[in-house]
Description:
Layout: E1 2-9, E2 15-22, E3 24-29, H1 35-47, E4 58-62, E5 67-68, E6 72-76, E7 80-81, E8 84-91, E9 94-101, E10 104-105, H2 106-109, H3 113-119, E11 122-123, E12 127-130, E13 142-149, E14 152-160, H4 167-176, E15 185-188, E16 203-210, E17 215-226
Parallel strand pairs: 1-12, 3-15, 5-11, 6-17
Antiparallel strand pairs: 1-2, 3-4, 7-10, 8-9, 8-15, 9-12, 13-14, 13-16, 16-17
Protein name: DUF2848 domain-containing protein
Pfam family, one: DUF2848
GO molecular function: catalytic activity
Amino acid sequence: MKTINFKIEENTPKYTNRAIAIKNLIIAGWTGRDTIAMENHIRELEALGVKRPPYTPVFYRVSADRITTTPCIQVTGEESSGEAEFMLVREGGETYIGIASDHTDRQVETYGITVSKQMCEKPCADTLWRLDDITDHWDALLLRSYAIINGERVLYQEGKVTAMRSPEDLLAQFASRGGQFDDGTAMLCGTLAAIGGIRAAQAFEIVLEDPVLRRTLRHAYSIETLPVAG
């Protein structure tokens, strides 16, 4: 279990502080609403040696301790990279929206996706929105990520959340597989194809923009690479 002190952003420029104990962390994979875009992402991973999923979407269970708001994570080797994903959090009978990075060890992913997801921490912003506040304009939300690669900040991902299944659809798919989205559960909900291909970076920034209510969720973190001794 991992307790995170989140700020709940209201429609007005006010925040409510809330400590949420994350008991279950789920990584949803291959959640594309656009089958062509999803196929492109599957091919990206196939190029790295990752096997195709048996069905889509797939839900991977990860240790709740992996979720973090830290500004720096440590990884083993130089084969990991981040992915911007909107995040669902359930607490007090209400669903919240956040932004997180499914940072993953790509080398391990080629022979064990579930293990690769467990290898790295999942950085997230410390601010959440109420899903009820954005349901009526969900399709307007924009997802982006930036990466520092060889000292240069580049746009790494960009697109609307409509590239992925909606929260309602995704949770229905989760329930059909026997999942329960109870209080204390967080779910990372899929990602966009990387501009220029999947690659490692020295730092990563994730952004979820709501152009209707004119607000943004954002988190940046650096990556410290630990040596592989054997």
